[in-house]
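Let's study my pick:
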Amino acid sequence: MHQNEFPIQKMCQVFKVSRGGYYAWIVRPPSSRIKENQLLVERIKLIHAETDENYGSPRMTAALRDEKFRVSRPRVARLMRKNNIKAKTRRKFKVTTDSNHKYPISPNLLEQDFTVSQPGRVWTSDITYISTREGWLYLTVIIEVYNRRIVGWSMSNSLKAAETTIPALKHAYRRFHPHNDLIFHSDRGIQYACSEFREQLFLFQITQSMSGKGNCYDNAVSESFFSTLKKELVYHRKYQTRIDARQSIFEYIEVFYNRKRKHSFLGNVSPDEFLKLKKAA
């Protein structure tokens, strides 16, 4: 690359190679390793774009292996670093919960144990805030702990239970009809503690569980999802309207997260793929 800046003879002396060896190197075809790396870099760039720049080297390695490439994580990390291909950076996640109310608090039935042997046993839920130029959009999600799938969600302009937790619960129940011994775990927010939401749980024969006061680790599954959502999507968007935000979040949840995004807890497969693999086993 410096042949136009320095004499060939001088560069050969500096690098201690012969002129004949230098010219032979120039006309020599790329090695199979170089060709393979070039192909890998092209696939990495494509996967990087398809996943909205969300994969670091571990998930990128898993994605390449899904395509039958025989690669190691250090090799993928090296190629990504060399070609300046990076996953989006994480921002600090702010938790906001209104637990200043007089409704009764349900016992914590999980005690930070999110291990389940089959689906339909434990759901977790939380609410977060999405900024748009029109104002806040409130997203409520319900997560199946077994395979970390978003089984129910709602998006609303207000924080009333009738527009957040209740429609999200109805959405999840209609789709999956869980077992009667399902535990529904959340924080102590008023949307989960109010009488209207508890009546809906009773109607569906679902047992309620609530986190300890001010302990975000008690609802770690939901907190983790919101952290991922904001790191991978929301922090990189400037939503003009709530409709824009709704469409973007819907596509992230239903098209990408549930079906395609590789989840480290699940062994780098998506929630839907994890369930299919377990059913086939």
Summary: The first strand starts at residue 122 and ends at 132.
